[in-house]
Amino acid sequence: MNKKTLNTLLVGAVAATALGASAAQAGPAEGNEKCYGVVKAGMNGCGAADGSHGCAGMATEDASGVEWVSVPKGLCEKLAHGSTTPVTAEDHGEEH
What we know:
about 10% strand; 2 strands; about 20% helix; 1 helix
């Protein structure tokens, strides 16, 4: 799968999540999974894994490892920087 196809799939998944999910939904719909590290700012699912906020649409940076979006199961691992578990700076050996 090429980068353009993956980006198209991600945009579709984000759009579906934004249109179909409510702010009260705590997790992904059946058949989907949380995908961390691939979210555009303001397009996240529910709260951040680090507890910095508890609402959808509050991500402040692109590709944060603690923000997630709901994607079809199996897609996350195919996306650049996608992870089914939160990714912190410490996981990458980075310092703040």
